[in-house]
Design brief:
686 residues; mainly alpha; 41 helices; elongated; PPR_rpt; RNA binding; Pentatricopeptide repeat; repeat
Length: 686
C-alpha cells in the first residue's frame, strides 16, 4: 500500500509538470474511488498538481475539503497563490494558518510569504516574518535570507536589504545578484558596480543585471560592460545581446549595432522574436529603416510566430514618420492570423493621429472596442489623444471619463487637444484636476497651459504657472521657457519676457522668433531688428515666421523701407519663399504711403494668387488717398474672386461711400441684398 501511494503521488506530480490535465483528473478520480482522497500525502500532491495547472480554485477546493492538513499543505497553497500573481490571497491564507494554530511555519513557508510581501508591498508583514526568522534561528539559511533581501529590494528598502545581506555568512551568487539588481532598478549604478566588483565570481546573471541597469538609465556604459563580459569568456546570451542592441538604439550607434547583429547570428539567436525585435528597434532608431525592413522580411518564420516582431516594425515606421508604410503593415497584420494586442492598437491609433484621419481612427476605435482594449490605460489614453487631436473634444472628454486609471498621458492628450481647439476653460479645469490628483504635470502640459494664459492674456494665471515652473525646475527647459516668454509678451509684459529669454540656456529659431514677434507686437521695432541680427550672428537661420514677425512689426510702425529690405533679404539671402501674409504686410504699407503703382507691380510679381485680405487692404488705402480709378479695378477682382463673401460687399460699400461713388454704391448694395448679406460696419443710413 505504501508503494502504491508513492506511485500515485509520483503520477500526480508528473501530470502537473507535463500539463497532462485529463490524465491528472483520471488519477484523482481513482484516488477518490479508492477512498484515499483524505490521505494528507496524496491530497497534498493533488493540490500541487492543480497549482501546476494554475487552477487555484480547484486546488483550494481540495484544500478546504481536507479533514487534516500539515505544513506542506499550507505552504503549497501559499506558494501557488504567490506564483499565480495573487500575493494578497497568499498572505490571507498565511494569516489564516497562524490564526488556526494548526501548524507552525517553516523556512519554506516563510520564503513563500516573503515573496508575496515583496510583490504586494506589505513591508510590515515582511518585517514581522523577518523577526520570526531571527527568533527561530533560521538566519543561517541562505535561501531564506535571499527571500528577505529580495523582499526589501522589491519594496525599495535598499538600506535594510544591504543589512540583511551582510547577515548572510556565505552569500551565494543569487544573494549577490538580488542586491545588485536592487541597486540597478533604483538607478544607483555606481553602488551596483561597486557591489559587482566585490562579488567573488560574477556570473552571467550578474553581468546582465548591470548591462540592463545601464540600458534603463540610457547610459552607454551598458556597451562597455557588454564588451567586458565577452572578454571574460562569458557567452552573450539572448538577454545580453538585445540589451546591447537597445543601448545602440538610444545612442544612435549603428556600427556597433551591426557588430552585435553578427553576434546574434553567430549565437543562433536569429530566430528569437526577442532578438529580432531588438534588431528592428535598433536599426529603426538609428535611422536605417531599410536594414530594419530587411531583418523583418528575412525572418519570415519568426515574424509569423510573434506579433511582437510586427509591432517593432510598426514602431519603426512610426519613429521614422513613414505613416503610409505603417498603415500598409497594419493592414498586413489585420489580414494575417495574428491577434492585435495593446501595442499594435496603440500603433494603429498613432497612425491615425499622424495622418489626422478621423475616419480611419473611428474604424480603429471600433477594432479597439471589439478587442476589449478600450479601457486599457495605454490604448484608452491614445484614443483620447486621437479624438482631441482632430477637434472632437466632446467624445474625447467622454472617453477620458470612462478610463479607470487616468494617467498623465490621458491628461496631456486631452489638454493639448483643448488648447488646440480653443477650449481654454476646459483645459484649465483639467489642469486643476490633474494637480488635485497629485499627478506630476510635465513640461509639455505646463507649456500648453501657458498657451491658454497667452490666448486669454491672463497674466495672473501665467505668473502662478511661472511659479510652478520654478518649483519643478522647468524654467530652464526650452519648451517651457519659450512658452513663458510668449505668455509675458502677449500679456503686455515684454520686459519680463526679455529677462526670461536672455536667461535661456538653449535658444532655437522658435524661441528667437517668439521674442522678435513680441517686440513687434509691443511696438518696439528697433529691438525686434536688433534681436534678429543677434540671432543671425550666432548662426541660427531664420524661418518664414521670423520674417513675418519683422514685417508685421514694420507694418504696425509704418516702416516701409525696412519692410522692402526685409522682404528682399528673405528671398535673396535665405532662399525663403514669402507667403501671402508676407506680401500683405508690404502691400499694406505701400497702400498707406499712396504708392499704388508699386503695390500693383508687387501683386503682379507674386507667385501666388492675391487673397481677399491683400485686395481689401489696398481698397482701404484707395479710400484714404481718394484713388477712385484703382477702386474700380479692385472691385472687379474682389467680386470675381469672392462673389459669395458678404464682407467683400461691406468693404466695397465703405470705399464707395468714402469716395462719394453713389451709383456704384447703389449697385453693390443691391447685389448684397440679393446675396442676403448683412452690411455690418456701415456708419450712415440711406
Amino acid at each position: 500500500m505504501v508503494m502504491d501511494l508513492k506511485l500515485i503521488a509520483a503520477g500526480l506530480r508528473h501530470c502537473g509538470k507535463v500539463q497532462a490535465f485529463k490524465r491528472g483528473e483520471s488519477i484523482q478520480a481513482h484516488v477518490i474511488k479508492q477512498g484515499i482522497s483524505q490521505n494528507v500525502f496524496i491530497a497534498n500532491n493533488v493540490i500541487s498538481m492543480y497549482v501546476d495547472f494554475r487552477l487555484l480554485s480547484d486546488a483550494h477546493k481540495v484544500f478546504d475539503e481536507m479533514s487534516e492538513r500539515n505544513i506542506v499543505t499550507w505552504t503549497t497553497m501559499v506558494s501557488g497563490y504567490t506564483s499565480d500573481g495573487k500575493p494578497n490571497k497568499a498572505i490571507e491564507l498565511y494569516r489564516r494558518m497562524l490564526d488556526s494554530e494548526e501548524e507552525a511555519a517553516n523556512e519554506f513557508m516563510y520564503s513563500a510569504v516573503l515573496k508575496a510581501c515583496g510583490l504586494v508591498g506589505d513591508i510590515q508583514l515582511g518585517i514581522l516574518v523577518y523577526e520570526r526568522i531571527g527568533k527561530e534561528n533560521l538566519r543561517g539559511d541562505v535561501v531564506l535570507m535571499n527571500s528577505v533581501v529580495d523582499m526589501y529590494v522589491k519594496n525599495g528598502r535598499l538600506i535594510e536589504a544591504n543589512s540583511s545581506f551582510k547577515e548572510i555568512l556565505r552569500p551565494s551568487s543569487t544573494s549577490w545578484n538580488i542586491l545588485i539588481s536592487g541597486y540597478c532598478k533604483a538607478g544607483l549604478m555606481d553602488e551596483a558596480v561597486t557591489l559587482f566588483h566585490r562579488m567573488p565570481q560574477p556570473n552571467v546573471v550578474s553581468w546582465n543585471c548591470l548591462i540592463s541597469g545601464f540600458v534603463d538609465k540610457g547610459s552607454p556604459r551598458a556597451l562597455e560592460f557588454l564588451v567586458r563580459m565577452q572578454r571574460e569568456g562569458l557567452v552573450l546570451d539572448g538577454f545580453a545581446l538585445p540589451c546591447g542592441l537597445k543601448a545602440c538604439s538610444f545612442g544612435g550607434l549603428l556600427t556597433m549595432g551591426k557588430q552585435l547583429h553578427c553576434c546574434v547570428v553567430k549565437s543562433g539567436l536569429e530566430s528569437s522574436p526577442f532578438a529580432i525585435s531588438a534588431l528592428i528597434d535598433m536599426y529603426s532608431n538609428c535611422g536605417s529603416l531599410i536594414y530594419a525592413a530587411d531583418v523583418f522580411h528575412q525572418e519570415k518564420l519568426a515574424v509569423n510566430s510573434s506579433v511582437a516582431v510586427w509591432n517593432s516594425m510598426l514602431s519603426g515606421f512610426l519613429i521614422n514618420e513613414e505613416n503610409e508604410a505603417a498603415l500598409w503593415l497594419l493592414l498586413q497584420i489585420y489580414q494575417s492570423d495574428l491577434c492585435f494586442d495593446s501595442y499594435t492598437l496603440s500603433g494603429a491609433l498613432k497612425i491615425c493621429i499622424n495622418l489626422v484621419n478621423l475616419r480611419l481612427g473611428l474604424q480603429v476605435h471600433s477594432l479597439v472596442v471589439v478587442s476589449g482594449y478600450e479601457l486599457d490605460y495605454i490604448v484608452g489614453s491614445i484614443l483620447v489623444d486621437l479624438h482631441a487631436n482632430v477637434g472632437n473634444i466632446q467624445d474625447a472628454h467622454k472617453l477620458f471619463h470612462r478610463l479607470p486609471n487616468k494617467d498623465i498621458i490621458a491628461f496631456s492628450g486631452l489638454i493639448r487637444g483643448c488648447v488646440k481647439s480653443g477650449f481654454n476653460s476646459l483645459a484649465f479645469y483639467l489642469f486643476r484636476e490633474l494637480i488635485k490628483l497629485g499627478l506630476d504635470a510635465d513640461q509639455f502640459i505646463v507649456s500648453n497651459i501657458l498657451k491658454v494664459c497667452s490666448s486669454l492674456a491672463s497674466l495672473g494665471w501665467g505668473k502662478q504657472i511661472h511659479g510652478l515652473c520654478m518649483k519643478k525646475g522647468y524654467e530652464s527647459e526650452p519648451v517651457t521657457a519659450t512658452a513663458l516668454v510668449d505668455m509675458y509678451v502677449k500679456c503686455g509684459e515684454i520686459d519680463n519676457g526679455v529677462v526670461l529669454f536672455d536667461g535661456m540656456l538653449e535658444r532655437d529659431v522658435v524661441s528667437w522668433t517668439g521674442i522678435i514677434v513680441g517686440f513687434g507686437q509691443n511696438g518696439r521695432v528697433e529691438e525686434a531688428f536688433r534681436y534678429f541680427h543677434k540671432m543671425i550672428n550666432i548662426g541660427i537661420e531664420p524661418n518664414e515666421v521670423t520674417f513675418l514677425g519683422l514685417l508685421s512689426a514694420c507694418r504696425h510702425s509704418g516702416l516701409l523701407e525696412e519692410a522692402r529690405s526685409t522682404l528682399e533679404t528673405m528671398k535673396s539671402e535665405y532662399g525663403l519663399e514669402p507667403y501671402l501674409e508676407h506680401y500683405y504686410c508690404v502691400v499694406d504699407l505701400l497702400g498707406q504711403a499712396g504708392l499704388f503703382q508699386e503695390a500693383n507691380e508687387l501683386i503682379n510679381k507674386m507667385p501666388l494668387e492675391p487673397d481677399k485680405t491683400i485686395w481689401t487692404s489696398l481698397l482701404t488705402a484707395c479710400g484714404t488717398h481718394k484713388n477712385a480709378g484703382l477702386v474700380t479695378v479692385i472691385a472687379e477682382k474682389l467680386l470675381k474672386g469672392f462673389p459669395d463673401d458678404p464682407s467683400v460687399y461691406t468693404s466695397l460699400s465703405n470705399a464707395y461711400a468714402t469716395l462719394g461713388m453713389w451709383d456704384q454704391l447703389s449697385k453693390v448694395r443691391e447685389a448684397a441684398k440679393k446675396l442676403g448679406a448683412k452690411e455690418s460696419g456701415m456708419s450712415w443710413i440711406i
